[in-house]
């Protein structure tokens, strides 16, 4: 069973649309949803969680329809948004008491373990927390009711690199369990490159590409050449290009690298940038 299955998802607004989105989060995997600000990442997550009504298409979460059966799997889903959703007047200890009443599977001991690991105070009001502390608290809550699926929307945005790295380590620990899965959106591609099994590129509401991360490394290469050499490569083999006064740089399929031209390994961030520019 897949953790999430999205088929033919559409949502139209006045000046933006999610169009014919098909995306799968396999069980036991981490899928990174990458896109520039405004690409539709948060809208997609809100549609998955039925916080917005889709115009058409279907979404299943842990085998359940997200419109008719979401209540059946709420206990198994941990959600973290880019802003802490807890009132600033509360302390972490009060949040724990609220969550204890909200979740049948709430685990006080596990919550305390995460609070110690994150070095978070139980008695300090959330309004006095830094952004990083708030994100860590949100993740601690999401992990403390034994969720099988984590959905994180820009959870690492605005955090310093040390905190981001700590959070990525925690997420990787979470997926050591075979039935644990994560969908994480971010425009910080380097974070996703560390943790994800699959990378999905979203641009202007459309899914440009979804592929296993390791396959992306295998399939594509960066080349540096002159314009004439680049023009000889079949257009369908060129993912993106940049032409300047000193020649051309392009990302092409590995099997299309011309003889005599050195191909270099790609990084996911450069692949994303080139794809977005090529898509317009």
List keywords for this structure.
alpha/beta; 29% strand; 4-stranded antiparallel β-sheet; 6-stranded mixed β-sheet
Shape: globular
Secondary-structure element pattern, one letter each: EEEHEEEHHHEHEHEEHEHEEEH
State the end-to-end distance.
36 Å
* Strand order in space, largest sheet: 6-7-8-3-9-10
- What is the helical fraction, as a range of percent? 25-40%
Give the C-alpha Rg.
21 Å
Compute the number of strand runs. 14
Unreliable sequence segments = none
- Classify the secondary structure makeup into a structural class: alpha/beta
Mean pLDDT score, rounded?
91
The main β sheet shows up as:
6 strands, mixed
With helices defined by DSSP (H or I, 4 residues minimum), what is the helix count? 9
Q: Into which percentage range does the β-strand content fall?
A: 25-35%
Question: What do these coordinates show?
Answer:
The structure is a single chain. With 280 residues, the chain is of the alpha/beta class. The protein contains 9 helices and 14 strands. A hairpin with a 2-residue loop joins strand 9 and strand 10. It is globular. The model has no long low-confidence stretch (mean pLDDT 91).
């Amino acid at each position: 069973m897949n953790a999430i299955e999205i088929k033919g998802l559409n949502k139209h607004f006045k000046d933006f649309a999610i169009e014919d989105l098909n995306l799968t989060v396999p069980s036991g995997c981490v899928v990174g949803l990458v896109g520039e600000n405004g690409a539709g990442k948060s809208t997609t997550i809100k549609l998955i969680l039925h916080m917005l009504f889709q115009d058409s298409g279907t979404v299943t979460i842990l085998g359940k329809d997200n419109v008719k059966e979401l209540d059946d799997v709420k206990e198994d889903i941990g959600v973290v948004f880019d802003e802490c959703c807890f009132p600033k007047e509360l302390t972490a200890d009060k949040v724990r008491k609220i969550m204890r009443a909200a979740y049948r599977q709430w685990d006080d001991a596990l919550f305390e373990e995460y609070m110690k690991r994150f070095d978070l105070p139980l008695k300090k009001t959330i309004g006095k927390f830094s952004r990083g502390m708030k994100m860590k608290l949100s993740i601690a809550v999401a992990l403390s009711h034994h969720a099988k699926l984590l959905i994180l929307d820009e959870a690492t945005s605005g955090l310093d690199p040390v905190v981001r790295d700590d959070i990525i380590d925690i997420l990787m620990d979470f997926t050591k369990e075979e039935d644990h899965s994560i969908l994480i959106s971010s425009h910080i591609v380097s974070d996703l490159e560390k943790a994800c099994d699959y990378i999905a590129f979203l641009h202007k509401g459309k899914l440009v590409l979804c592929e296993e991360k390791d396959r992306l490394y295998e399939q594509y290469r960066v080349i540096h050449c002159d314009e004439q050499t680049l023009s000889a490569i079949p257009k369908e083999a060129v993912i993106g290009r940049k032409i300047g006064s000193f020649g051309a740089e392009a990302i092409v399929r590995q099997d299309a690298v011309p003889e005599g031209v050195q191909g270099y390994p790609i990084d996911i961030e450069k692949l994303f940038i080139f794809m977005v520019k090529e898509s317009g």
